[in-house]
Write a structure and sequence with these properties.
4 helices, 0% strand, mainly alpha
């Protein structure tokens, strides 16, 4: 990733980072991941901007929590779908054939 934000003013960096964080709030973890990837160097520099670091860390934590929730759901679904009967089939995008 090229970090073109290096030429931006601190206020612009805060504004962009904040917008990415807020865009990720409606459970859009890829926006949070982009925010973390884009501003990680800026947030971990010794002379970092505190607001940027805050948004980057919240984005990283939010994306990690979301990924954990999705992983847990996939694990439960994969292991329990057959025991849910018709409900398990109705919420499937692709119903596998054969015995579970």
């Amino acid at each position: 990733l090229s970090n073109e934000s290096a030429a931006a003013s601190p206020e612009e960096k805060i504004n962009i980072c904040r917008k990415y964080f807020l865009a990720g709030l409606p459970l859009l973890p890829w926006v949070w991941i982009v925010n973390v990837l884009w501003f990680w160097r800026e947030a971990t520099k010794p002379d970092h901007i505190p607001q940027v670091r805050k948004y980057v860390m919240f984005s990283a934590i939010g994306a990690l929590i979301y990924a954990t929730m999705i992983g847990a759901w996939v694990g439960v679904y994969q292991s329990q779908r057959a025991s849910w009967g018709a409900l398990g089939d109705r919420i499937s995008l692709h119903v596998p054939y054969g015995e579970p």
